[in-house]
Amino acid sequence: MVRLSLARRDTMAAAACLNLLVINICVISTVCQLANFAAAQGQHSVCQDLQPSPALTPFVDPLPLPKTIDISNGTQLVMGAYKITQKLHSQLPPTTLYAYGTSQTTATYPGPTLQVTRYKAAHVRWENHIPDSETFLITDRTIHWANPKRGGVPIVTHLHGAEVESIYDGNPDAWFTASGETGPEFVTQNYTYPNSQRASLLWYHDHTVGITRNNVLAGLAGLYIVRSPSEEPKNLPSGDYEIPLVVQDKQFWANGSINFPDIGDSPSTHPNWCPEYFGDTVLVNGMVWPYLNVYPAKYRFRLLNAANARFFNLTISEPSLKFIQIGTDSGFLRSPLTLSSLTLAPGYRVDFIIDFSGITPGTKIYLNNTAPAPFPSGDDALLTKIPSVLQFRVIPTPQGVHPPSTPVPQNMNITLPTPAYSLTANVHRKLTLTETDDADGNPVLILLNNRSWVDPVTESPKLGSVEVWDIINLTPDAHPIHLHLIAFLLVQQQQFNQTLYEEGGCSLDNPYGDTQSCFTESPQPPNAEQVGFKDTFITYPSKVSRLWTRWTSREGKPFPFDATSGPGYVWHCHILDHEDNDMMRPALTSKSTHYKEKGAHNT
Fold it and tell me: Which of 18, 48, 468, 474 has its CA 20 to 30 A from that of 335?
């Protein structure tokens, strides 16, 4: 990702307002929205050159914990999206947000944690109560987006990581507004989640075409925990010792509002779209740089990176402490991993334990971030002054309190089937990631396999089949790629000579060592953070990432619903700014002769 110099940005910012009057003749409403946006903030905001947030003292506010709602009893939960204000730091005025909740007064950022039991279907009615005529974070109308004719803020909720019928998957074109206008793939607001996947941490978030970045940054996200007592390892920290962590970055104006760019990197093409949103302030569970009191004991953390674009490389300030990773996107690992750092792309979830048992009360320990932005080789130094994400304060254990003290199980998931995967498959797809830049080297379009969201479907896997996907990254960034419906294995990553490849001087069809091969190394196993079944993975620049995809349930069995009905599924980059322009593609599953559903839910 090419970054503009400050001098260039100053020139661009000065000229942008004049340019907008010309370039937006075809979308007059953008001029009005831009004027309203600037008036509300008092000034314009330039992509990746935002005014710094006001100075906020870190670690003065306790970590809040989202409310948990158990929806395992079969009763429908009515969950709405609302416009709220919420204090995100004791020194910051209340911030305007969009938030999920069961009512206006209970809506919070992040939304309540929904808890379910495996194999017990949950029913949620998603409602839109946002009164705005347009999003309060500016919409770029030059990129493909929902564009409701009667105005309003469209939403549609996706349960990330779920095995679910496509009409309940939160298709980007299944949006609806508060006034009742709907997108072309809208079917219903009443969703059924069969919860057939293994015990794992999922999350729900807005997925509206073209404005996912706006709505998620505004607050429309929350956790979803699938429990399965029969398969969960015994003696894991639980109750007060199991802590959810939703991590996100934002930037703020002095009045508490979110600082979101209204002038893009390439305003002559996209007036407002910014290739990546990076904030200078980290929030955990909706609080800026909070602290958490812990006893000298083991704690289990369920962490989600809900950022638009920021990767996190987490480390612990106390060298004697390690991350004991026990789970990933799609559930428990077979055996725990002891790690010094955790790399998390947007959309990643990780399940880990930190054992504070040997730490003296009164000690303060920090969860730090060292990842550059853009990742992996950006020049962004936004978090160098305060690189910490969260502070742990070790306090004495009160008399009569008995924290968990049993060892972490070494066989975490002995029932997890490990497929005997083969890289020989009936279908072996080679799919590129590409970026189109303007004359100044600023991105204006990012695509999967050189196709946009509205182009005809090209990925149509048969249910029950195995496909190998080679993801060829021709961009300068790492991208988190998310496949809806299934979990997959990242089995290999392999560096190649991108310059020679783009010149046509070598081939990716030839193996490493062949004189005509582009590969510069033999196939490498996945990094530690990419081990196990995943629904989102990182593909690095100038590398081929090889996926083993099986179009069945996580266990290799038929889905308990018809996965070929409805609008179909999606695969996309989970850098939300990329997804919105236009790094997202449809995927339509089809039936094979030997495949039979176990039974479909009523719709």
Answer: 468
